[in-house]
Amino acid sequence: MQERCNQANQEREKPLIYSHITALALLGAELPKQTRLSTNALHVAVRNNNARYQQQGIKRLRWSNGAGLDQPYIVGDVQCVPPAVAWAQMAQYLTLSELVVLADSLTRRDKRMKLCERNDFVILLAESGLFWGKQKCKKALRLMKEDTDSSQETRTRLVLRQHGLPDMEVNHAVYDDAGDHIWLLDMAFPDQKVCIEYQGDQHRTDKHQYRQDNIKQRHLRDMGWAVICATAKDLSSAEAKLDLARSVAKALHMRLPPKLTGVCRYLLEEII
Q1: Does 88 have pLDDT greater than 90?
Q2: DSSP calls for 145-172
Q3: Which of 99, 120, 143 is where one domain is finished?
Q4: Which residues partner with 189 through β-bridges?
Q5: Any idea what DSSP says for residue 259?
Q6: Source organism's superkingdom (predicted)?
Q7: CB-based burial label for 207 (10 Å; 0-12, 13-18, 19+)
Q8: The whole model's pTM is what?
Q9: Do 18 and 105 fall within a single domain?
Q10: Quick one: which of 89, 75, 91 has its CA closest to 136?
């Protein structure tokens, strides 16, 4: 991506400020899974429609808000908007769920993958003017969790919220009886001792990971935890999502609400 952007800059007198998906790629972020924005062209932020680019392969996207354009990030020899700004720019092209997934991915627990903090989003929304999707960003901010480990874990958490289940902790720490070993739970309701563990393909194909998962689950159950494992199949259809939510609700000794309100309703609507 840096090479493509450098090449595009050589054909212009003034360097471009890259934005949206191009900025995310330059920053090394995990790219959105589903978006209405084409990924073939290089995305460039401009303040108004008069800033026209006739250059082939460049997609000019109006960003009248201007946040991030005066003090862009420098990646190699290329300029791009900061991570929080790229996230806000994507609100127009992502569902609410995927906007939350993107926010979580930018604030990973792994310091090598962490590009910003939740407070960066808070400051951006507080200090910037109006832009398309700002209200959606505010809703996403209520749903995001800092220091998560994977986008599929986030999608699992949002599916449960979508069906009316209460908020849950992420990476909740549990110590064994001796107090010398710690288990991090993907998603947990600590008071009820119920946890949800997302298992990707590597949990099945990697023998070491498979054994570690079994040991972890055995110890958790010995300590009285109800462990519910979720996979990609549980997120593959409306019926599968509902079945997963019912299993978690049963472990919590509660029923799914017949009528959704607040953030649960927002997730269900999935307005772009």
Answers
A1: yes
A2: -SS---HHHHHHHHHHHHTTPPP-EEEE
A3: 143
A4: 194
A5: S
A6: Bacteria
A7: exposed
A8: 0.91
A9: yes
A10: 91
Residue 198 pLDDT level (bands cut at 50, 70, 90): very high
Residues 118 and 184 in one domain: no
Domain final residue, candidates 119, 143, 167: 143
Give how far Cα 28 sits from Cα of 69, 88, 103, 256, Å. 19, 17, 14, 39
Q: Please state the domain count of the chain.
A: 2
Tokens of 37: 């924005």
What span, in angstroms and rounded, lies between the C-alpha atoms of 87 and 21?
Answer: 9
pLDDT class of 27 with cuts at 50, 70, 90? very high
Same domain? 6 vs 131: yes
Structure tokens at 205: 């194909």
Q: How far apart are CA 22 and CA 42, in angstroms?
A: 6
Please choose, from the candidates 189, 91, 107, 106, the residue with its C-alpha nearest in 3D space to the C-alpha of residue 140.
91
